[in-house]
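To whoever is on call:

I kicked off a structure prediction for a single chain this morning and the downstream step that reads the tokens threw a length-mismatch warning. I double-checked the sequence; it's 113 residues and nothing unusual in it as far as I can see. Pasting both halves so you can look.
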Amino acid sequence: MRGLVGKRKLLRIFISLEDKFKGKPLWEYILELVKKEGLAGATVFKAAAGIGAHSELKTFSVWRLSQDLPVVIEIIDREEKVRELLKVLDEVIEEGLVVLEDVEVITYRHRGK
């Protein structure tokens, strides 16, 4: 799929693993939204530790039942598609950080069905 190669936008979203929207994990809701809106794809990274919006250190602990760890979601696509997604994300992200940067996609390949 050579159509994604070239100058694109990288949307990076920093949220918490425990964030929810409509009772569903927020990261999962965002992935479903990306698929529904037909963006090229998204990747979710669960961090081992981080400092959140309230300067609170969040780390993994085997002693805690609940793991409120940082999550980063990366989405790359054409600027117009990313900007449309941002309009929806503004309604669903209550707390977190959203950044947008220029990237150049060199190669984008996938296996055919």
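Update from on-call: the warning came from a stale cache, not from the record. Cleared it. Sanity check on the structure: The CA atoms of residues 50 and 58 lie 5 Å apart.
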